[in-house]
Amino acid sequence: MLQVQGVVKNYATPQGPLTVLAGVDLHLGERSSLALMGESGSGKSTLLHLVAGLDRVDAGSIRIGEQRLDQLNEGQLAHWRRTQIGLVFQQFNLIGSLRVEDNLAFQARLAGRFDPHWQAQLVERLGLGDLLRRYPEQLSGGQQQRVAVGRALASRPGFLLADEPTGNLDEATSDEVLQLLLDLLRDSPTSLLMVTHSPRLAARLDRQVVLHRGRVVPMDAR
Ligand SMILES: Nc1ncnc2c1ncn2[C@@H]1O[C@H](COP(=O)(O)OP(=O)(O)OP(=O)(O)O)[C@@H](O)[C@H]1O
């Protein structure tokens, strides 16, 4: 269970401090999915980075179960990221020098959680069987994003954080990739926090919230 309470995040800018998150509250239960929406610049990626342990809060807390992220040192945070977080970005971010099969296994191996049986299931369900020996540049956008989804889920993380994962894909491919992702989540111990600009895609998740003026509000409360 992820609990975000009163989170504040400021950035230093030439014009002075910019408060992007001004007291964000959010919770995400086990095996559930949440869509995070909001205007461009509202702080969605900032919040995702904080939850991923890639950046630190200025005030408030992010708790996973009983553990507070702000009380972890850098080494513990890195361990948290490796074992508990799967990340999927709009730009796919595959490793260009590795074949699909090694991209898929990359994070699970790093986390010491490589499971050949789960990997084989991911390959089959994501339809990657014929592509395993290819390099990322030899794949379409939709194929690359299917590899990125498989890589993020291979280590069976507690949380999958997806930042506009289908932002670079056409509508039909977006639907297909999201459906594959949601189907896989049913068989994983993984909760999904997904940033999206698309109300259509957001509606497919369990809950939808909006970041507005530094706070999280229900979908229709702006
Ligand atoms: N490192 C930084 N230093 C200063 N300002 C930053 C930094 N990172 C982000 N910002 C600012 O913080 C605000 C929120 O940015 P963020 O990327 O979190 O928004 P977003 O909701 O994800 O936007 P988009 O939908 O366009 O991706 C923006 O005004 C941005 O310019």
UniProtKB/TrEMBL annotation:
SMART domains: AAA. Residues 2-221 form the ABC transporter domain. The keyword Lipid biosynthesis does not apply. Pfam families: ABC_tran. Keywords: ATP-binding, Nucleotide-binding, Transport. This is ABC transporter ATP-binding protein. It comes from the Bacteria. It comes from Pseudomonas carnis. InterPro entries: AAA+_ATPase, ABC_transporter-like_ATP-bd, ABC_transporter-like_CS, ABC_transpr_LolD-like, MacB-like_ATP-bd, P-loop_NTPase. GO terms for molecular function: ATP binding.
